[in-house]
Amino acid sequence: MDMNLAPTDKLVRATIALIDDADETQPTLNDLGEKLGVSPFHLQRTFKKALGVSPREYAEATRLDRFKMAMRAGGTVAGALYEAGYGSSSRLYEHASRRLGMTPASYGKGGKGAEIAYAIVACELGRLLVAATAIGVCRIAFGDNDAALADLVRHEFPEAVINADADAIEDLARAVATLVDNADQRLMDLPLDVQGTAFQAQVWQQLRAIPAGETRSYADIAKALGQPSSSRAVARACASNNVAVTVPCHRVIGSDGALRGYRWGVARKKRLLAKEGVVTK
Predict the structure, then answer these.
(1) Predicted confidence (pLDDT) at residue 85 exceeds the cutoff of 70
(2) Which SS3 state, helix, strand or coil, does residue 255 take?
(3) Which of 55, 148, 230, 243 is the most exposed place for a label (fewest CB within 10 A)?
(4) Poorest-confidence range of 63-77, 85-99, 202-216, 226-240?
(5) E strand or H helix at 142, and its extent?
(6) CA distances from 261 to 192, 240, 252, 270 (A)
(7) DSSP H or E segment with residue 34
(8) 25-31: which pairs have CB atoms within 8 A and are 24 or more residues apart?
(9) Could you give the CA distance from residue 259 to residue 238 in angstroms, rounded to a whole number?
(10) Beta strands at 161-164 and 216-217: parallel, antiparallel or unpaired
(11) 30 vs 113 pLDDT, higher one
C-alpha cells in the first residue's frame, strides 16, 4: 500500500509495523492502542488523518496486496491465500469480494477486464472443466467434449482474457476432481469467484448448508428463505449455479423424492448423490 508519511509521524509508522508483522490474526484497534500506549480513539484519528484509512482498512488492503503479489509471482490460489495470512478462503471473501476477481458489473459485461484460466481434466462423471480468476473458481462444468466445454467459457465470458492454462490452476482442478470422485467434503471450501442476484446468493447459501448424504426439496429451500411460494424461483437459482458440486445443487430434489432436471444430466446427479450415500428413485 502506497504511503506518504512525514518522518516524524512515529505513531503511524509504529502502527504500520505492528500490522505488517501480524500473522493471520490482525490486532484490533484496542490491541494496537494498548501496545503503543495511546487511546484507540486517538490512534484511529491520527492514523486516518495521515493515510486516509483506518488501521483496519490498512490491514485489509495490505493483506490483499500480498495475495495479489503471490498470484502474480505464479503461486496457486490456495498457496497465495495462506501466504497472505488468510486462514481460509472465507476470510479473503469477507474483505475482498468487491476488490478482486469479477464484480457484478464485469459479469454483466461478459467478464470485461477479467483474466480467466481454465483446465479440462478427467473425472468419473466424464470431462470436467474448471475455470478461475485470480480470486477463485468462476466456472465448473461437466461434459463429454473438450472443445464444447472450452466454448462454454468463451461464450459466457466473451469480453474476458481467457487462457487454456492447466498449470495456473492445477491445484484447483485436481481438488474439484477429487471432490467429484471421492465426495471429499473437506474440499467444499474451495475459493470461489461467483456473482448472482441477492435471491440467488441466498439460495446458494442454503445449498452449501445441506450436509452430504442429505437432500432438500425446492419447497424446503423456499420455506427456509421465508418465501414458501418461491419454489420455481429456487429451481431457477439452482439452474443458474455456475460452480457445480462446490455449491451442491445436486442435493435438491423434488418433493416426491424424484430427481428433477440437472444442468449436467440427471444421470450425473444420481451418481453424485450415490457417492454421498443417498438412494434415489
Answers:
(1) no
(2) coil
(3) 148
(4) 85-99
(5) strand 137-143
(6) 24, 12, 10, 11
(7) helix 29-36
(8) 26/56, 26/59, 26/63, 26/85, 29/54, 29/55, 29/56
(9) 13
(10) unpaired
(11) 30
Q: Which range (96-110, 152-166, 181-195, 225-239) has the least confidence? A: 96-110
Closest CA to 173 of 207, 135, 140, 133: 140
Reduce the DSSP state of residue 271 to 3 states and report it.
Answer: helix
Which residue's C-alpha cell is 498457496?
A: 79
Question: Quick one: which H or E segment has residue 163?
Answer: strand 161-164
Write down the pLDDT at residue 1: 45
- Exposed e or buried b for every residue in 80-116, given b needs 16+ CB within 10 A? bbebbbbeebeebbebbbeebbbbeebbebebbebbb
- Range 276-279 contact pairs with CB under 8 angstroms and sequence separation of 24 or more: 276/183, 276/212, 276/213, 276/251, 277/212, 277/213, 278/213, 278/214, 278/215, 278/251
Q: How far is CA 126 from the centre of its chain?
A: 24
Distance from C-alpha of 122 to C-alpha of 128, rounded to nearest angstrom: 6
Mean pLDDT of 30-53: 85
Sort strands 216-217 and 252-253 into parallel, antiparallel or unpaired. parallel
Give pLDDT, residue 131.
92
- Give residues with Cβ within 8 angstroms of 275, minimum separation 6: 182, 183
Nearby residues of 151 by Cβ (< 8 Å), 6 or more positions away: none
- Which residue matches cell numbers 490512534? 43
Q: Report CA dihedral (262, 266, 269, 274) to the nearest 10 degrees.
A: 160
Q: What's the CA gap between 216 and 201, in Å, rounded? A: 17
Catalytic residues: 249
